[in-house]
Amino acid sequence: MLKWLIKFGGYTTILRVIAIGVSLAFVSALSLWMPKDDYGLLAMVVSVATLAAAIAGFGQAELAVREVAPLVARKDTEQAQAYLHEAYGLVLAVSVLTGAAIGAYFLVAGYSALVAGSAGAITALLGINLVLSGAARSQDRYFLAFAPKDILWRGAAILATGALFFGGFSTTIDIVAPLCAVVLLVIVGGQAARLSFSPRKLLGSFGRSFGGERMGAGAALMFSAVALTAMNTIDVFLVGERMSPTVAAEYFPANRIALMCGFFLLPMQMVIMPRIAVMMRENDLPGVRKLFTYATLLIGAASIVTGAVLVFAYPLYAPLFGTASGATREALTILVAGYAIGGLLGLPGIILITAKRQKLLASVNIGCALCAVAALFLVTGTGDLSAVAYTVAGFELLRKILIALSAYFAADVAPFSLSSFTKTRVS
């Protein structure tokens, strides 16, 4: 089991590294090839679309993994495809509505119809990509789960925009934004085709896409994701609003760099969640505890090592950030400590989702997010940046502890379950 975990965890980590490289290339290349104001608008469109996609996806990616992985393990392809097409129908409807709302916002805000339409299309397609990625994860098709959006889309957008730039054509926002939308449509369409998506099956299952359990569980996971996103971003906003934009400029690099402590979380989640979903369905709690303990050990070790590198190598990469200062390093050290210690608790949220306790997970995330926002509102009024960092790190660690305790009491699975390794003697 450990060798399997290291093998596929390493494979998905390599995909993550490639994705980060392509993302940096996307940012760098388009910033050079597009007019400055147009590039800024494209960055805003992609950022808003990415955040809105969390709503458009409606939590169906995690539900697809939880429900379909056991069907795949039993080789019940017919039922697996039936469930996925029902999920596709729900996400398609929510994504179109969310995309239309985002497009309408940009249109009312005074942007061109091309920009507004592109923003709406990118939002809807990213939402659809989420459920397709969940379908791929449920079948252990890691490349198909990770690569379409994070590698192939951005890579193709770089090549297409580069062809326009070096060919002497316009690279304004009215050209590049629709181009990005078209490229994403092709990529997501190919992803759907590889996952045996059938328009005929979609039409046949569309009426069952809005079942009560799927809607309730999806809404819980959606609000949970929104709360988690808020916890990772609201601190920068409040620092800028209640302290000063200059202080926010010093704090922002620390905020972004510290999140790298969780670099290994997503690859590991992609690997272990389908297997845990199968074990949970089979009531194999000893197997769940053993796999979860291995994953926690790997995640914890990776978080500590990554955190140490980020802190001690700071003087080497600090010159890359023009606004970095001594306050940045102090805040970074505090934030990294919180995230690294939290890494020792692994991924207890997976246990709650696979145990069908997603509402409990949402309650913890939403509660912590609301309390963190209230605390940060008070702390930013003091003007102490270190206090802000301690508040963020403290609430993140508290969130992880509460989720781990919830997983233990709700599903009898702790981050470390060393008793699962002991052999039972048969007399």
Automatic annotation (TrEMBL):
Alphabetical keyword list: Cell membrane, Membrane, Transmembrane, Transmembrane helix
Bilayer disposition of the protein: Multi-pass membrane protein
Subcellular location: Cell membrane
Residues passing through the membrane, by range: 12-33, 39-65, 86-107, 113-131, 151-169, 175-197, 218-237, 257-279, 291-314, 334-353, 360-381, 401-421
Protein name per Swiss-Prot or TrEMBL: Polysaccharide biosynthesis protein
Originating species: Qipengyuania profundimaris
